[in-house]
Amino acid sequence: MKKSLLIAASLAAAASLTLSACSSDDSSGNGASQATETTTTTAQASALEGTWKQTNSADPSRQMEAVITDNTITINWPAFDAEGKPIYWIGTFDESAAAQGGTITSTRDKSATDSLLLASTSDTKDFTVNDGKISFGVSMQDLSMTVEMEKESDEVPTPTTVRNSDAANSFENGVLETAKLRIKITDSRVIHPGEPGNEYGDKPVIAFYYDITNKTDEDLSALDWAFYFDAFQDNNPNTVNQLETGPNPDSELSSSSYEKIKKNGTAQGAVAYYLDDEVTPVELVAKIFPGDTEIGRQTFPVS
């Protein structure tokens, strides 16, 4: 509640972006004119990309910020102590249309924001681009205000801050893609008690071997698999049967699983789940982290 009140008190933002005029009165329709027009429009759209800052805040030290890049807009609340700047909005942003001015309707990235406490829950949001400025409405509790911003710099943060996970997230053919990482399952197999990889267990396990790639500067290790996957066997008519994880089936990979992966670096990992039977297939479900929104699922036979 304290955070909500602090945010509500700082609701005043206006974004201003200088747009170069690119009108053409040449109605001859010749190729050179059209090419120049297209080039100018593209340049205007590119000029929108960068970091924007609130200009109409009652407190200059507490300003909302936004980043526009790759036809995506990300808006953050002002920082709260050491907790950073909570996300208010992540959604689409048609830069080419915005370069022409008028109203741009952004569709919220639900996968990226549904689990965020202070993010807007609206499905869409209108942004007005006019006279080199961008404005949009912000509502919280009983307060509603119009936010205005101006472009502060051409700098675009890494995907750590800016992302459009609805577009980036997928789990198909054994490959999980998110804005932060890529996990490719390279092998899966059932290991019975006493066999290498399950020497001390009394139940069979299904083991998954994978390559994990870090796409950002954020900390990542092979252990992060656990944040993005759950395994199930649908063998109970009344309850959901989520499988428990077992010991790492590969001793060498286990010893390196804590190592941090550099940006664009790839490491190998392995994980095992205890099977409740050797007939029911295992359903491996990929999910958004943080949160539990499902990205996709894949079935693996065990017999």
From TrEMBL:
Source superkingdom: Bacteria
Keywords linked to the UniProt accession: Signal
Signal peptide: 1-21
PROSITE patterns with a match to the protein in the record: PROKAR_LIPOPROTEIN
Gene3D superfamilies: 2.60.40.1240
Residues covered by the DUF5067 domain: 160-284
Protein name: DUF5067 domain-containing protein
Organism (species): Corynebacterium vitaeruminis DSM 20294
